[in-house]
Specification:
This protein is an alpha+beta fold. The protein is built from 7 helices and 19 strands. 23% of the residues lie in helices and 32% in strands. The strands form 3 sheets. The protein has a 9-stranded antiparallel sheet. An 8-stranded antiparallel sheet has the order 13-12-11-16-17-18-19-15. About 3% of the residues have low confidence.
Length: 335
């Protein structure tokens, strides 16, 4: 081999080594720029400045939680109050997520990590927008990875990132609500009066002040209850009462409805107007048996009214059926 060829080969080897060193240096620099840094820098310090969180999945389900007059409200449920605790937990998870490494900046590789734009056909990911007044910070949450981590891409950036948090965000609006309506034990109830639209009535009352066992007051002559506990289920209907859906109260209620009034031992009257069918939509009103007699009851009525009077709630089927019982359903058949 002559000197010229040897020099050329040596020069080529030097170029290859230099290129390899440069690529390694670039990878080290990229890693040092990203590894350990917050996924969303500054969000931890801005948590109390957040005014909204919007989550959209690839099926176009949307959750929009926004701050309105100091209250977190869910727009998809006509402004019903959202669960502020769950919202804050979600924001803290986003704020505390740290970058493990940069994975790719090539769009053709995004689908492998699930970080393509959510509107892309066949995408299975989430678009998340954090609102801070007029400013927005966006994120595409892709596939989960091993070790309780997730692939993400910040909106408007090319780089796909692996972060050290499981970023599971729910796009079902109902899961951002506190679904409890009331929790009043039967021991606190003295009587219940049910009035059906067909004129049928049912009245039950507690046997004694300390008992949660109820009797049928308007028991027809010659009839017997199916058991001594037949009325107890109705009396306990307000215990851990939840809803499966919610909407703002309309101008008029259903043409056919069942009115159920619970009287508590403190003299609070809780009246439900329950529509037919399934789901059974119910509205609530709160008054006092003896207005002005009990300051605590007055405060209770005002508090419940402020919370519930503008809304209608879809009740679970079994609980709705229990509240809409007819007198005859609690009696033994006629021989």
């Amino acid at each position: 081999m002559n000197i010229k060829k040897l020099s050329a080969l040596l020069g080529l080897a030097i170029v290859i080594l230099a290129l390899a060193w440069w690529q390694a240096a670039q990878r080290t620099t990229t890693a040092s720029l990203h590894s350990g840094q917050p996924m969303l820098p500054g969000l931890r310090e801005q948590i109390n400045d957040v005014t909204g969180l919007v989550i959209r999945n690839s099926d176009n389900q949307v959750v929009s939680i926004r701050l309105n007059n100091g209250q977190w409200q869910l727009e998809e449920k006509q402004g019903y109050p959202a669960d502020g605790g769950k919202l804050r937990s979600a924001l803290l998870i986003l704020a505390d997520a740290k970058i493990l490494e940069e994975k790719t900046s090539r769009p053709e590789m995004y689908s492998r990590l699930g970080i393509q734009d959510p509107e892309t056909p066949d995408a299975q990911n989430l678009g998340v927008t954090i609102e801070l007044g007029e400013a927005h910070r966006g994120l595409i949450i892709g596939k989960s990875a091993m070790g309780n981590s997730h692939y993400v891409r910040r909106t408007g950036e090319a780089a796909g990132l692996l972060v050290n948090q499981s970023l599971v965000m729910d796009a079902d609006a109902m899961n951002w609500l506190q679904t409890g309506i009331l929790d009043i034990d039967a021991k606190q109830i003295s009587r219940v009066d049910v009035q059906h639209d067909d004129g049928d009535t049912l009245s039950i009352a507690s046997l004694e002040d300390s008992s949660d066992n109820f009797i049928i007051e308007n028991l027809p002559v010659g009839r017997e209850p199916i058991s001594e506990f037949a009325a107890n289920g109705i009396a306990s209907s307000l215990a851990r009462l939840n809803f499966s859906d919610v909407r703002r109260k309309g101008g008029t209620g259903p043409e056919e409805s069942t009115s159920v009034t619970f009287t508590t031992r403190d003299g609070l009257l809780i009246t439900l107007s329950i529509g037919p069918g399934s789901p059974a939509w119910a509205s609530f009103s709160f008054t006092q048996a003896m207005p002005g007699e009990n300051a605590v009851t007055t405060e209770q009525a005002s508090g419940y009214s402020a919370q519930l009077q503008d809304w209608e709630f879809a009740l679970p089927g079994q609980r709705a059926d229990q509240l809409r019982k007819h007198l005859d359903e609690l009696l033994k058949p006629i021989d």
